[in-house]
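Standup notes, structure subgroup. Blocker cleared on the inosinic acid input:
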Amino acid sequence: MTNNAQASTPSGSAIHPAPMNVLITADQLQKRVIELAAQIDADFANETPVLIGLLKGSFIFLADLCRAVTIPHLVDFMAIAAYGGGTSHSGGVRLLKDLSVNITGRSAIVIEDIIDSGLTMAYIRRLLLARQPRRLAIATLLDKKSRRETDLPIEYVGFEIGGGFVVGYGLDLAERYRHLPYIAELDLTAAEEIPTSE
Ligand code: IMP
Ligand code: MG
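Run returned:
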């Protein structure tokens, strides 16, 4: 399947068109989200955890997950930015927006779209553990496990995938493709880089 939308990169060039293959369908996503929600219901049955969405990539996953979870819970957001902003991680992470809920003594579940090297999540985890939550768990829709550069406990994984670059269901390439209801893999090698005035 191909998509003719242009994706512009932070450097001002455009990748056009970026061919894509559907990797995980909308149906598969919905089914898996319901399974993860059932696990969270069971594991946090007598608690009121805070579901912490990491902006922006997790917004659709979190929206679906929190409506499938039936135990009482709170929803909050954090925003972090990886230095660089391209298709790979450069190592540095910066906090753009902090929580508004105090998680000290509370249970919290960090909700992420994808874990790649794990460096972003390791940073978030350290930051949140320093606030002494009662319990801190990690949920990620996608796990590029083979690319991990640091040890991370991850309690909830939607799908383990390979190392290719994926978009859709919240995940972007340079802010494009977040709205796709499925996860697609972009063929970046086949994408032609052309200059743009953006
Ligand atoms: P990590 O710190 O290397 O684990 O990178 C995690 C972040 O990189 C994610 O939160 C995403 O923002 C981004 N990322 C990694 N792989 C992909 C991908 O395949 N598509 C879209 N974003 C990705
Ligand atoms: Mg992200």
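Discussed briefly. Confidence is low (pLDDT under 50) at residues 1-13.
Next: hand off to the docking folks.
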